[in-house]
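// run 5 | inverse folding | seed 20
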């Protein structure tokens, strides 16, 4: 059976669930995470019970979505995109697990700001991905994979450079936010934007390229 969800992805989910369990055990029930500060006082707080359950729920949604995508793909299309979707899911699952670990460390009073560390390595990963896409040459098994083809060489190059630039800027933006220490709230929001905005740009640019070549 074809599946984009591997045992390693399930292991990452298990790690996140374990971190969540430790969080509920070690972090006081009335604890609130300071997601943003205004001066010396937090102006955005996250209750413990609501905050800790988000990460495993997000991972379950990701696993379900990628599993469904894998089932819907044809055998040929699956072979072409597996090498892209597999590391993509791994990266997303790892970011969520790492963020959850950061929240746990914050909740137990550790001075190690692991959420900022997550933002740093995630930003570097997106920057590298952006450079790879920007410099990519057209190849049957390389580059972006969409349900519709990018017919012209010029259109393929423009789409990949736009997408590469979007991912690269997202990586740089995360690095800046980490440096400025904007707080966990804005940083986690930036994680989501850094994933979905470049992907949306990729999808829209391929659609525009397809419409122009039609």
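// decoded
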């Amino acid at each position: 059976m074809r599946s984009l969800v591997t045992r390693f992805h399930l292991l990452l989910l298990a790690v996140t669930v374990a971190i969540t369990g430790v969080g509920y055990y070690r972090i006081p029930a009335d604890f609130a995470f300071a997601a943003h500060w205004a001066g010396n006082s937090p102006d955005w707080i996250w209750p413990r019970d609501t905050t800790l359950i988000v990460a495993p729920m997000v991972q379950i949604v990701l696993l379900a979505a990628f599993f469904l995508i894998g089932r819907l793909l044809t055998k040929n299309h699956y072979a072409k995109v597996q090498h892209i979707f597999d590391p993509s899911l791994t990266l997303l699952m790892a970011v969520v697990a790492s963020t959850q670990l950061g929240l746990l460390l914050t909740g137990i009073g550790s001075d190690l700001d692991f959420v900022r560390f997550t933002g740093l390595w995630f930003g570097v990963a997106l920057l590298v991905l952006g450079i790879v896409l920007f410099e990519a040459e057209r190849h049957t098994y390389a580059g972006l994979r969409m349900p519709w083809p990018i017919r012209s060489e010029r259109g393929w190059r423009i789409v990949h450079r736009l997408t590469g630039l979007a991912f690269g800027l997202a990586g740089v933006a995360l690095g800046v936010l980490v440096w400025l220490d904007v707080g966990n709230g804005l940083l986690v929001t930036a994680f989501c934007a850094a994933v979905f905005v470049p992907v949306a740009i990729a999808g829209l640019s391929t659609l525009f390229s397809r419409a122009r070549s039609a």
